[in-house]
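Minutes, project check-in
Item: structure for the 397-residue chain
Input as provided by the requester:
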Amino acid sequence: MNNLIRRWWEQRSLAAPSREMLTLFSSGPTDSGMTVSPETALSVPAVFACVQVLSQDIARTPIRFREKTGDDTYIDAVDHPLYEILSSLPNPEQTSYQVQFALMWQLLLYGRAYAEIVRVDGRIVALWPLYSDAMRVDREASGRKRWTYANGGQTYTWLFDASAPPILELTMESPILRCRDIIGAALALQQYTSAFFKNSARPGGVLQAAGKIDTLTGERLRESWAQNYGGSANRGKIPVLDQGLTFTAIQMENDSAQLNETLRSINEQIAGAFRVPVSKIGDLSKSNYSNMEISEQVYVNSTLDPYYRSFELAMKRDLLTSRQYGQFDVQFHRAALTRNDTKALHDSLCQGIQNGLYSQNDARKALGLNPIPDGDRYMVNSALQPVGAPKEVPNVA
């Protein structure tokens, strides 16, 4: 009975949505009356900016595939087939940047991302990203996990194999599916501002005649007014009225309605849902050098790190065998994403060299320079002495 309930839930749960379920739960109207789906949400500039910046930052962070050679000691596993696949060329047509970008993009839109793992004689030779909305995940009657992919008129099916997983799968709740109402409000506001600049007449209000006018005359006046004073191109024109016509303004100005403040508030809430600093989506009104530097560090440690861990653990689970799991490590090189100014970087490297943290070649590598002979030694300042050690008397003879 428990297995039956588990299979039923996994087949119908939003944690593993089919294309039909995504359509059903993401296309309904929100409180603002707007329909929100992953595709329509991208038409909101703040949503697009958040998805783009997160995908770009994940894509430009190098993946390090390393082999464990001792306690807490790792070296780049350059001889392993996965090294090239993860670091530079996942498949013959796409770079690592493109694949990482595609997986993160799908993960943010749908809460799930997939890549086909291609094996030849048990050896992984390629990773191909897949469209999340074309993938259905369920289980066979026996309980075995099954992926069904329908795209381009073709249907492909993979069955779970613990010794050689066929699919790299990433899961994380999508901000778009969770925060549909605020995105719907942004869509409604976007629609309103578009209609305002397209159709509004300025001055706006009601034309009143001294006496009764027939329908034909009223239509002629309306069309003439819209033609001469409607739309953004005619904004600010001064009308000249005759034949006893008067104009009464009744429409509230947008600055009185605090349109800009509303837009900024919605953008801040969308950025907050994605946990992206507003400076990264184009709002620099509250930014300066100091808080932007701190914001960047918090962004890497707080926003990107959960995604890094999700990628790292999923890759270890699906790409490594049980025998390789403790021998090899997959890790994003987080330090590559944090940039210091030149002076701070050089000061930090110099202190690291003087205190034995870096060798000269370690520092040169961080600066993108080639190593030098005899530059791999780790040295400390000669003035440092253990506590209580007798002082050496210099030989002056």
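Outcome recorded: The chain is about 40% helix and 15% strand.
No further action items on this chain.
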